[in-house]
Write a structure and sequence with these properties.
The chain is globular. It is 45% helix and 15% strand. It is of the alpha/beta class. Helix 3 (46-59) crosses helix 12 (278-289), helix 6 runs parallel beside helix 7 (129-137) and helix 8 (154-166) runs parallel beside helix 9.
Length: 401
Amino acid sequence: MNYNHLFSSVVSRSKASAIRELLKVISRPGIISFAGGLPDPALFPTQEIQNIFDTLLTQNPKEALQYGSTEGQDKLKQELVRLVKETENISITPEQILVVSASQQALDMSARMFVNPGDSIITACPTYLGALQAFQVAGADILGVASDHDGVLVDDLKAKLDLLKQQGKPCKFIYLVPDFQNPTGTTIPQDRREQILALAKEYNTFILEDSPYRQVRFEGTAPRTFYELDGGQGNVITLFTFSKIFVPGFRLGFIVGPADVIRKFVILKQAMDLCSSPTLQLATAEFLRRGLLQNHIKRMIEVYRQKRDLMIKTLQECMPEGVSWTHPQGGLFLWLTLPKHMDATQLLPKAIENKVAYVAGVDFYPDGNVLNDLRLNFSYSTPQQMVEGLKRLAQTIKDNL
């Protein structure tokens, strides 16, 4: 049976994730990988989770093992209301929250919710490739905004919004990862956030704010979220996830937005998976109720800060002249730029031969037109692996300058 003539147009717009495909290639022993966005498994709160599951399945098995509501378990949503108030000074009601299967589902749902094929959206350039995947599958026309060490440039954002207005094309939304951006590690300062939000209001669009690990900050003062700056006026929808700040295997996150928009999201999710796992939602709610999350994050911050510092120190010691990198104030990623004549994609097989891996930066650009960048993850490797892996990478770059 040949299925080619039966596939939908969505399939033709879909392409494999560069990271997921790469992880399959580099799984063999001996390769040191900076490719994935993997938390350090040594930090997983295994004992606490085991205790919570024992309690949950002993005291409340019927609720834990039954279907749940599409909106999310009430116990979890109540904890989320408290969490965002305590950590972000955001006051919301449970009706403004939808529990989802981590940020990737939220991105997919956002694309389905707002994008028809050919509709225009704006992203940073570069930006998170999982978001680009979701938007491309929906058929979005993606315009990338130039960025510097403080994130997207306001003047270029205004120019792109003006261009769409002149063409008679509304901008459906502006997608941003404002804190420790994936992939660059940069953070948008508060004054620039205020200017960006003002532009969104002026051009009658909204900001889709992706906040996967905002609390994992090593230094400096956190700017206010776009959602808080907006003051509940409905110009921002924010995506949160527990994948990076708790455990990725639970695949849990949540969308915060206007109640009427959340109701539309709920209808969409009903057709997708009915509900996210009640068992994992209730376990997460109990983890939050016991006050365990903030101590867990504090431990992550201490370990990841040391790893970031080690990565930067090792890069300074071993990288050749002409190679530069960002200095993230938090998060999990660092962005490395090679000399302009080098192609990180062509260099990757040679790096893998030297038993080290990274993600080429080209897949983080909407137009795929910048070739000399690459992303490094510093959260997963042990210190010994990090030093050895960066030495191998530096030697690979030197050999191919």
